[in-house]
Amino acid sequence: MKRLIDLTNEEARAHFMKGSSYFNGDLPGYISFEPILSDVASALNGGNFPQFQAANPALSPNVNYSFIANKDGRFSWRPYELIHPVIYVSLVNVICEGGNWELIMQRFRDFQDGVVDCCSAPVMSVDHQTDAATQVRNWWQSVEQRSLSYSLEFNHLLHTDVTDCYGSLYTHSISWAIHGLGEGKNNRGKNSLLGNKIDSHIQASRYGQTNGIAQGSVLMDLIAELVLGYVDEQINAELGECDDIRILRYRDDFRIFANSDERAEEVLKIVSVFWFSVNWRIQSFELAYKNGGIHHAQTT
């Protein structure tokens, strides 16, 4: 497997333009998005959609195609969106410009050191496996296997996640994640900032909303990881160096390993505070003990 953040900007562009990256869910094999993405890319010719638009799409509803799919065959429904191809290809062009791609990759490198260990950096297949299968294998190795190892060292595991992570993400926080909170706030609305360009593309596809990003594409997974990494950075700064806990994060799924209820819940409070800053709330948590006991809690 190969991490997306290790690709060159042109390799990343080619990866994002694959049909399986445009929508990474399960669809019949005869459905292919690559022809339309290729045609749009030829029409844009490396440019961005604002150069060609006759009207602001942010003023129109239903620019993206939205639908829901069932996760467990019963009650777990999940919203997905097919981003309008013109906006999608335009955003790929912006992100994959040489300097822009390097800035984003540098931010991911900045996020790597600290007590929060990100295990969900997007990966791609380098063999016969699909990219989705490769991502699952990465999850098994980096989360499940390491969780087993940490369970021998710690006797408490607090497991928590975010309520509607993609749907509630505050889009202005994308600029904070790339440029820092100060620069992002001071230059809000200025199209010279990469973060603002990404933000404006997302708003254009979602009726001008500043809450939520589309779910279902590798490109949006990358943007979500940017904001998650930004929050990790703040949590790391707050916790500092500590040997009494371990934290594994896979997207919005947190596993906090500790040796007492008090320490696990103290860390959860810190995580919650920084999640609040980008409009995220804890959905629930499960505190498991080495002797087999489990404490569940649901939040609102």
Quick description:
With 300 residues, this protein is an alpha+beta fold.
Write a structural description:
It is a single chain. Helix content is 45%, strand content 17%. The protein is α+β, with helices and mostly antiparallel strands and 300 residues long. The protein contains twelve helices and ten strands. The strands form three sheets. It has a six-stranded mixed sheet, with helices on both faces. A two-stranded antiparallel ribbon has the order 1-5. It has a two-stranded antiparallel sheet with strand order 2-3. The chain starts with a strand and ends with a strand. The chain has helices at residues 9-16, 19-22, 34-44, 85-95, 98-110, 131-151, 165-168, 173-179, 181-186, 194-205, 218-239, 261-276; strands at residues 2-3, 65-70, 77-82, 116-118, 123-124, 156-162, 246-250, 253-258, 282-289, 294-298. The model has no long low-confidence stretch (mean pLDDT 90). Helix 5 runs parallel beside helix 11.
